[in-house]
Specification:
By secondary structure, the protein is of the alpha+beta class. 29% of the residues lie in helices and 26% in strands. It contains six helices and seven strands; from the N terminus they run βαααβββαβαββα. The strands form two sheets. It has a four-stranded antiparallel β-sheet with strand order 1-2-3-4, sandwiched between helices. It starts with 6 loop residues before the first strand and ends in a 6-residue tail after the last helix.
Length: 167
């Protein structure tokens, strides 16, 4: 899948070094629920078989690996710190959501963000998500912390209302 600036493709074994380097940055991992910190090659090899094509995509820009986006009924994404602030999360997620809602029977998509992660909140709002509740969770990367997680929801109608073109 291609966007104006990005290539979204299946995750591959060759992504190991770039993915491990990017996600092993605690400023990335701290906002992700299931990611341990530190993150190593063993973690990558345990994850790779579950990264199903059509549900999980590596994000690449002109300089290479930039992060990941996934949708299995719940949208998730993360970006390497080198690309923060460029709009890649909105662009990649928008492409994945457009593909999702191109299926006439595709249902509502869920997502979530941690309290304090204003960037992720902004991405989800631009894409048309609405708040759907909250829960307290302990992220794998921060075993001693309990964080407030805001649940979000995107209906087909909300996606169509934003014109399928996030701003």
């Amino acid at each position: 899948m291609r966007t104006a600036r990005l290539c979204l493709r299946p995750l591959a074994a060759g992504d190991e070094a770039a993915l491990v380097a990017a996600i092993n940055d605690f400023e990335v991992a701290r906002w992700l629920y299931f990611v341990p910190h530190p993150y190593g090659g063993r973690d990558f090899h345990e994850f790779l078989p579950s990264a199903r094509p059509g549900e999980v995509w590596a994000i690449e820009d002109a300089d290479g690996f930039a992060g990941m986006v996934a949708n299995d009924g719940e949208l998730g994404y993360w970006l390497a710190r080198r690309v923060w602030g460029r709009g890649y999360a909105t662009e990649a997620s928008g492409a994945v959501l457009a593909e999702h809602f191109a299926d006439p029977v595709a249902g509502t998509v869920a997502s979530a963000y941690f309290e304090g992660n204003g960037r992720s909140c902004s991405v989800l709002r631009k894409l048309g998500f609405q708040r759907a509740g909250h829960v307290l969770k302990t992220p794998v990367s921060r075993p001693g912390d309990v964080v407030l997680v805001y649940r979000m929801s995107l209906t087909r109608r909300a996606w169509q209302r934003i014109g399928s073109q996030p701003h």
